[in-house]
Amino acid sequence: TSITNHMPTAELQALDAAHHLHPFTHGSDLAKKGVRVITRASGSTLTDSEGNEFLDAMAGLWCVNLGYGRPELAEAAARQMKELPYYNTFFQTTHVPAIALSARIAELTPGDLNHVFFASSGSEANDTNMRLVRTYWEQKGKPSKKIIISRKNAYHGSSMGSASLGGMSAMHAQGGLPIPDVHHIEQPHWYAEGGDMSPEEFGLERARQLEQAIHDLGEDNVAAFIAEPIQGAGGVIIPPETYWPEIQRICDAHEILLIADEVICGFGRTGKWFGSQTLDIRPDIMTIAKGLSSGYQPIGGSVVSDEVARVMDECEFAHGYTYSGHPVACAVALENLRILDEEGIVERAGTETAPYLKEKWETLTDHPLVGEARIAGLMGSIALTPHKESRAKFAAEAGTAGLICREACFGNGLVMRHVGDRMVISPPLVITKDEVDTLIERAWTALDVAH
Ligand code: PLP
């Protein structure tokens, strides 16, 4: 049998439930509730197998920055596949797409982040970072510097290494995580954890936990600190303004490398090319993926400073993936970056769409269920609460309000994600003002259902 878009949805769902193991999905839900079969997409709109349309306020998984359906990317892939579908970048070889993409990334990234080690995903890139920073310190004659400090509720990927770096307790509970030499400090989540402190005081307090951890673990044992400029999968947690300057001061004062995980924040998401620019961070290493190719091909990487590259060049780094710098993925990423730049998409997202979206998004705080609405560029969140004044959480069925709201969004033609009782958005950068209006209307209706 050939399985196509034209099969009845129920048959597709049954086959899917029979043979397909899904990430982050409860297996029994597949059979019970059925799975949504997405068949095509264009711009910011998805279509499912029943012909329903959804405004995708998540850009897939925070990645389709360019929007769906750009034929130029398909053409770039086809051209590259015909010319050189695959070759590796190991053992003294390279190819033009990898050369061109690494040079372009070096131009776009701030400071002296001029060198790229390619991977196929953010998880792989963070695994690279773990080995890279430890190898860096070995090369510098400081092999005891091994510990990587990260944060609770961070998300850095799903491989053993990157999930250990992440601070998701549900992930650590499965499969024997975290692996050794990773240490987690608290997150700068003022709304949930700030108590009576002002956001400014709380930001400083949470940043200073890094200095305390370096002190407790011993500076000679700490290799690096890793963080998302704005935590994405943790619930779009925008830190208080005092947080990042203090983190930067601490990293400068102590001999540790700063890794900015820009897998979500990169490529225009926060209104500038990189979250590090929006938040004024000077990382030694940047993790990139997602928006690098707008999700049209799997590709990620670690972008490192001149100094890190200089030290690494003194050895053979015994690390690499078959698809490090895959030529088709590189060609597609290059075309994506060309369009994001030449059509002024990143620029317009930051200067026009972001202020418009912010104004509209913040009106959601008028809804009785919404305790706060935060947004930076085109990534935002609202906190659902039964009691706005005390910022209380929902009691027994934590997460239920968020889940109901997410399902109501789906029923109403909107894809929004929930993280516990936070609803998050990260739409394609090409979302129009009319679509922003639709997003807010549909979100409001879904909130009414959850209320
Ligand atoms: N880092 C961050 C900040 C992410 O949000 C993600 C994915 O959501 C990853 C890393 C992992 O990337 P991937 O899913 O491409 O492995």
UniProtKB/TrEMBL annotation:
One Pfam family of this chain: Aminotran_3
Source species, domain of life: Bacteria
Source species taxonomy: Bacteria, Pseudomonadati, Pseudomonadota, Alphaproteobacteria, Rhodobacterales
Swiss-Prot/TrEMBL keywords: Aminotransferase, Pyridoxal phosphate, Transferase
Name this protein carries in UniProt: Aspartate aminotransferase family protein
Family per similarity comment: Belongs to the class-III pyridoxal-phosphate-dependent aminotransferase family.
NCBIfam families, alphabetized: PRK07480.1
GO MF annotation terms: pyridoxal phosphate binding; transaminase activity
Organism for this UniProt entry: Roseovarius faecimaris
InterPro entries to which the protein is assigned, alphabetical: Aminotrans_3 (IPR005814), Aminotrans_3_PPA_site (IPR049704), PyrdxlP-dep_Trfase (IPR015424), PyrdxlP-dep_Trfase_major (IPR015421), PyrdxlP-dep_Trfase_small (IPR015422)
Cofactor section: pyridoxal 5'-phosphate
Coiled-coil region list: none
